[in-house]
TrEMBL record, chains A, B:
One of its GO terms (molecular function) is (R)-citramalate synthase activity. Pathway: Amino-acid biosynthesis; L-isoleucine biosynthesis; 2-oxobutanoate from pyruvate: step 1/3. It catalyses: pyruvate + acetyl-CoA + H2O = (3R)-citramalate + CoA + H(+). GO terms for biological process: isoleucine biosynthetic process; L-leucine biosynthetic process. Its EC number is 2.3.3.21. The gene is cimA. It comes from Egicoccus halophilus. This is Citramalate synthase. Pfam families: HCS_D2, HMGL-like, LeuA_dimer. Residues 17-284 form the Pyruvate carboxyltransferase domain.
Amino acid sequence: MTDATAHSPLPAPAAGLDLYDTTLRDGTQREGVSLSVEDKLRVARRMDELGVAYIEGGWPGANPKDTAFFARAADGELALEHATLVAFGMTRGAGRPAEADPLLQALVDARTEVICLVGKSWGYHVDEALGVPRAENLAMVADSVRHLTSLGKRVFFDAEHFFDGVARDGAYAREVVTAAAEAGAECVVLCDTNGGAMPWDVAELVGGLVHDLPSSVGLHFHDDGGCAVANSLLGIEAGATHVQGTANGLGERCGNANLFTILADLQLKRGLRLVPPDRLERLTEISHTVAELCNQTTPSVAPYVGHTAFSHKAGLHASALAKAPDMYQHVEPEDVGNRQRLVVSELAGRSNIVLKARELGVAVDDEQARTVLAEVKRREAAGWTYEAADASFDLLLRRVTGSLPAADEPFRSRHYRVSVAGGADEASAATEGPAEAILAVEVAGQRRLGAGEGNGPVDALDRAFRNAVNGTWPQLDRVHLSDYKVRVLEASAGTDAVTRVLVTSTDGVDVWDTVGVHPNVVEASWLALSDAYTHAILRVHWQQTAEV
Amino acid sequence: MTDATAHSPLPAPAAGLDLYDTTLRDGTQREGVSLSVEDKLRVARRMDELGVAYIEGGWPGANPKDTAFFARAADGELALEHATLVAFGMTRGAGRPAEADPLLQALVDARTEVICLVGKSWGYHVDEALGVPRAENLAMVADSVRHLTSLGKRVFFDAEHFFDGVARDGAYAREVVTAAAEAGAECVVLCDTNGGAMPWDVAELVGGLVHDLPSSVGLHFHDDGGCAVANSLLGIEAGATHVQGTANGLGERCGNANLFTILADLQLKRGLRLVPPDRLERLTEISHTVAELCNQTTPSVAPYVGHTAFSHKAGLHASALAKAPDMYQHVEPEDVGNRQRLVVSELAGRSNIVLKARELGVAVDDEQARTVLAEVKRREAAGWTYEAADASFDLLLRRVTGSLPAADEPFRSRHYRVSVAGGADEASAATEGPAEAILAVEVAGQRRLGAGEGNGPVDALDRAFRNAVNGTWPQLDRVHLSDYKVRVLEASAGTDAVTRVLVTSTDGVDVWDTVGVHPNVVEASWLALSDAYTHAILRVHWQQTAEV
């Protein structure tokens, strides 16, 4: 994990435009994304490291998890370097004073400097979904904003369904946003909640509101028409100074505007300095890490940060690429921490290896860097990835360069057999007995046999290994797996595709990630586990070396 | 597969805008896409059924596969209903008359009515990559166009790198496109080859050329800045009458403009009648089928055609959705052949269950809905999730309400044992032999035993099951797993935490998701697999029921 202090300090305030990250709220509406409080803290820290201005943490009071997140943040556990944390919630309920609204009180109790309130701006929704008189909806908006500002909060107002509202009932939609702005909302955010706004809808409308409203104007687009990023850019050109989006465009249905794409477009193509260049250089890494935390992958075709975003397949490009990369690339991949990939031919990137090796305290010369790079390429082509598996990369580097000769490996895996029974029916599978493993490893020239029973094949292997090496490395006692992720690659080939296992291990203080790839999920798991143990056993020694 | 003849005839010519499909050329530049001639014929027929105006088949003469494709097409094997087939190629070589250029001759030999020629329009490329005098490049363009039109061909001209060329060397780029148009190109296509054009670059530039050029103007965008669709739309608003794109946005790096999104945006939101409505209703099916042919999957978040494009997660929406679907949807999902999906989660209320049941064609009364909800909540507390597992929810619903009594289950799982060996070392694990499974299921009261070998325990189980039920349900032959995801819950407990497996299955047209949860990853996988098989076996019957 890179030390954030090694990077440039972030400007405050940002260059006339605020990036507002709603991954932790809108992003989690993506099917299959379910973040623990711990996950939420980790995602927030990553977005903070990138340098966004605001991080929306969720809806305190709406569910226990979000309430717990804000409590831990308020207790100093989040420790954001730069970003301002925002609590999200709804305007007061109908027919109830703002002061007595329990949901607004929960927002206050979240102890953030900024609160983002959402309210209805489409008359149809006020009539049919909310079922309150339109005047009351206006009062709900204004009262809620006034109440929170009177308590010293800075308030943003998300005008839900604003683009649909304007299209079908323009006067009322404008009344709502005007009410919010006049009541003291610092920023009024025009939301395309259903995601169907088209680029021709944006510029004039946003420009008009930038002119008319006493507040600043923000944007919140969804991608149902495939235009969320472009709509955001067009709105910013028209004068909006706040833009909401999510990491990798996570979000309900087709997703939210991809904040990473917006950032890179504006900074590299519009000349806005939203984050220091050395932060932008971490974009790819942050994209992939946040995706992993959300149990997703960054799509390989994602602009800027995707695995293939700077891939060149056509052989005829290669020489031109070497001579003048700007001929075939819209930006420099290094500016966003990505890299050019050529399907044929050797390429630059050796300097990356040298830098990374230096960071890990391993000396590599030019020839070794070339060998490492070739090995990385060979393995990446077979499905390995080192982006989210630093500890495995570290081992690869040491093995290929000879800094970890085979003779110094703490153990050598010899054989295992795992057996699993089940299938009787869902409830009674436990009666089938645990998974069993028998494992042979070689330690200091001696063959050691271990047996393990566990809840599954990986657990059984883990126990068998510990049984086999029992007592040899006491530091292993403190180590346990904190996460285990499996992904099938070349997915359309089904179960006989290659399986990639990522294992996160911890001793309670440090955390390290390892990777294994194999057609067999058990073998892939074992490869990742082996690296995790080896790292656990050797890292104390390496840390001393690296510090010298 | 739907019979194309059952659909409306296609208008000729289309409504002032031509959709030009380049899936078979630019789309195949996507890593991992490699189409046989047969595949290419099938993709072309699908795009034709949708109703695009032009289908670019590839580059005859550049490789034997494309040459064979055009030969078979010319022999009548392709039999397009509506679209015009286009052959793609380069302008003549430097210093050689067009009449004597073998590549141009190969284009002529492809026997298409239309030829699309690509030429350089960025001076920098002419100087550095091509290395010919700029005047010669102009002559290469004009001569080639004139030569082909003199032979009775209709010619389109793809102005490569036009947007970069204009930005850095505008006068020359304009000279090139003018030369092509004046030489007789019917359409001059402005290509954003490197994909970095921003929406603010498009309207004025395209509008100016629409005014200035004697030809019509086309567009060809790539998605490196995340704006390919919006840029296409903006260019069309500015007067372009031809737009190039690919199925599902397939293409090199970040992909090409997604022709499906452009079509739906223009037809449903701009009122252009590009294809008959009953063709547009096949968009989702065609998207998924073409993706399969290309060994890809349609991303679940793809606008209009993705699996989650019309999914609704939040419980509070459900009652409003039933009352007025246009409140929460930018278009009617049926218009593009997709469907609304309610995502069931612990946040859902009873009304969500009732609606979801109605969607699935299962009658549930209030009391049953309460029971189902209680069961969903109980299971979610134990780690199950139905958000991304529609098919498992469907089965849960039917089982809990008695609509699928135990006696009607197609099979009952009895027992399995799986054995995996490995660990020798990374490279030689294959010599340990495959994973082996033995599985017993009960079908119609009879115990059936099956054996399977596979690359891993899940693969082995899958094969053992198919072996056990061999031939009983032929529809299973078309079913395969397209994705497999594993997540460890309560991750801090390490490998003995609960494991959640999500399995995506497909028969090439439909896609369904199932879930299994168990401490043992193999058992969790088996539970998800069982549901996937049960769904595959019973769904035909249920679909009929739902239609009644």
